[in-house]
Every structure is written in structure tokens, then in C-alpha cells.
UniProtKB/TrEMBL annotation:
Entry-linked PROSITE patterns: LIPOCALIN
Pfam families: Lipocalin_2
Stored InterPro entries: Calycin, Lipocalin_ApoD, Lipocalin_bac, Lipocalin_Blc-like_dom, Lipocalin_CS, Lipocln_cytosolic_FA-bd_dom
The organism's place on the tree of life at top rank: Bacteria
Residue stretches making up the Lipocalin/cytosolic fatty-acid binding domain: 36-176
Family as reported in the entry's similarity comment: Belongs to the calycin superfamily. Lipocalin family.
Record lineage: Bacteria, Pseudomonadati, Bacteroidota, Sphingobacteriia, Sphingobacteriales
Entry's transmembrane regions: none
Name this polypeptide is given: Lipocalin family protein
Length: 178
């Protein structure tokens, strides 16, 4: 692709992102966890459930791994296996605090200067499972340090998400093999 086409493509993506961010659905307005400990949050998490979106479509065995970058930001490595091709798909991004370092409000980017909200709204005291909301009602994740989650915790997270306005009929339960 020549430079002119590349510039036009990048411009179209940037304009599209601005328009989407302006017109996107009503934001989820919930409190994030307080007394957040990033060091406890680092490491590998298994995705238990999500609202599907383009990057994760048809993926199983989805994990997210968080580690520190030298600049103080957090390296985010998302990985999953395509259910039809069996090929592993990996995406590397970075996260930063959205505000106070003691709050579970982060912003994550997998594409240049464009960040999305990553709000840890519930987490167990040992940082073994968590409920994450995006910056609007289109994004939700349930994560665990293991490939499954306690049924009582799952029910608690689901009730909270429903009470916050999430349409749980769109929730996809992630296949975690092995």
C-alpha cells in the first residue's frame, strides 16, 4: 500500500473511533473497587464469560496476562484459540490508571493512542476472581485465576451486572479446556 492509501486508511480509522466514542451507548455508571492493589492483580487470569466482540469472536481458552512494563504501565497479553482453525490468537496492549492508583479504574489500549475503560467493579479478597465492566454496557468480563468459578460468586456477579443494566442474554461463557 502506498503512503497516500495508508494515510487515508489511518485517518478513516481515527475518525471512525472518534465518532463511535461520541455515539456509543450509555455509559455504565458504577463504582470501581477501592483499595485496589495492582501487584495482587498482576499475573494470569482465565476468562470465564464475556460479551462477544470482534477480537474474541470464536475464541476458546481465552486468558489475559498482566505484567509491569519498564515505564510503569501494565503489559496486557490477551490470548485465545480459534474454535474452527485451532490457531492461537494473541494481542498485546498496555494499561494505565484512569485516575487514582488505589481505584480499580484502568484504561487499556491495543491500538495506539486509543484507550477504553477497564473497570474492576468486584473482586474477591484474595484476587482470585473478578467482575470487569468496560466504559459502556457493551463490555463485561468475568475472570478467574482458575478455569472455573465458584457458583455462589458467579451468581453474585451476575446479579450485580444485571442490576447495573447489563443484558445478560448476550453473555458468552468461555470454553476453557484442560
Amino acid at each position: 500500500m502506498d503512503k497516500k492509501k495508508t494515510l487515508l486508511t489511518l485517518s478513516a480509522v481515527a475518525i471512525g473511533s472518534v465518532i463511535y466514542n461520541y455515539l456509543k451507548p450509555v455509559k455504565s455508571d458504577v463504582e470501581v473497587i477501592q483499595d485496589f492493589d495492582l501487584q495482587k492483580y498482576l499475573g494470569k487470569w482465565y476468562e470465564i464469560a464475556r460479551f462477544d466482540f470482534f477480537w474474541e469472536k470464536n475464541l476458546k481458552n481465552v486468558t489475559a496476562e498482566y505484567s509491569m512494563n519498564e515505564d510503569g504501565s501494565v503489559k496486557v497479553k490477551n490470548e485465545g484459540v480459534n474454535i474452527t482453525t485451532e490457531k492461537t490468537k494473541t494481542s498485546i496492549g498496555k494499561a494505565k490508571y484512569a485516575g487514582n492508583v488505589n481505584e480499580g479504574a484502568l484504561k487499556v489500549s491495543f491500538f495506539g493512542p486509543f484507550y477504553s475503560g477497564y473497570n474492576i467493579v468486584m473482586i474477591d479478597s484474595d484476587y482470585q476472581d473478578a467482575l470487569i465492566f468496560g466504559d459502556n454496557l457493551d463490555y463485561i468480563w468475568i475472570l478467574s485465576r482458575t478455569k472455573s468459578i465458584n457458583e455462589d460468586r458467579k451468581a453474585h456477579y451476575l446479579k450485580y451486572a444485571k442490576d447495573c443494566g447489563y443484558d445478560l442474554s448476550k453473555l458468552k461463557w468461555t470454553v476453557q479446556e484442560g
